[in-house]
Amino acid sequence: xxxxxxxxxxxxxxxxxxxxxxxxxxxxxxxxxxxxxxxxxxxxxxxxxxxxxxxxxxxxxxxxxxxxxxxxxxxxxxxxxxxxxxxxxxxxxxxxxxxxxxxxxxxxxxxxxxxxxxxxxxxxxxxxxxxxxxxxxxxxxxxxxxxxxxxxxxxxxxxxxxxxxxxxxxxxxxxxxxxxxxxxxxxxxxxxxxxxxxxxxxxxxxxxxxxxxxxxxxxxxxxxxxxxxxxxxxxxxxxxxxxxxxxxxxxxxxxxxxxxxxxxxxxxxxxxxxxxxxxxxxxxxxxxxxxxxxxxxxx
Length: 299
Known about the structure:
The protein is 31% helix and 26% strand. It has 10 helices and 16 strands. The chain has helices at residues 28-31, 71-83, 94-98, 125-134, 141-152, 181-189, 210-221, 236-241, 251-255, 271-288, and strands spanning 14-19, 55-61, 64-70, 85-89, 108-111, 116-119, 122-123, 156-162, 166-171, 192-197, 200-205, 225-229, 244-247, 263-265, 290-292, 295-297. It has a 5-stranded parallel beta sheet with strand order 4-1-12-13-14, with helices on both faces. Helix 2 (71-83) runs parallel beside helix 10 (271-288). The model is unreliable at 1-9, 46-50 and 293-297 (pLDDT under 50).
């Protein structure tokens, strides 16, 4: 395992901010590839050149497989981690993030949509204090939880507050989710925003963004170029702030046909998209070069 880290003027030139679910890791349904029936078993699917696609389990929950990635994607991620500061960035809670094993040990990670900045696996208390100050002008999570519970009555499976930072609703079926216009108006009045991702509806303070935490990691590492990948509306600030970004050909942004001039879209969806976006980011690192003693040299 490797540790992607840098200090100002030395080390990696690039920071790669990478969303997790449906960007790097996938459920059995969203993977769009055969999955192993046992952790050690490989799953063969004919690739473009006839090679088998090997799928690895990257998360277990209550003793059962939860998320997957292809072996090639994990190899590409390890390679990227050797030449850039790789930062997993997720809306998952701290506990949910800690269930995931990507095969690398990133120095920095971001959970709860920017609410937690992890340094060597542990939440940074200084960042927690910064977030708490940022959220004082927003309606409290308890208010939004009550609003979400009223909105979700009769059709939702779960309504929860995540790490006392934001709220999410899980429907039995995405077709059960009613129109979000009225809820959005109420939420925005409290300084929050609404995002739908499949069967989930997120209520998040507008001051709580992934990019805000990414900016802090860039400040601490001295990296000069930001790369990013993500699939949801909550990833948009991070994608727009990047010098180069990739989004998969699936997910919330794909359904919205969202793009930007510096954003590349993968050719495929599912697990193959995870491979393609990492290949694109690695190509960008190689094209830009690396930082050596403060000077940029060819990679």
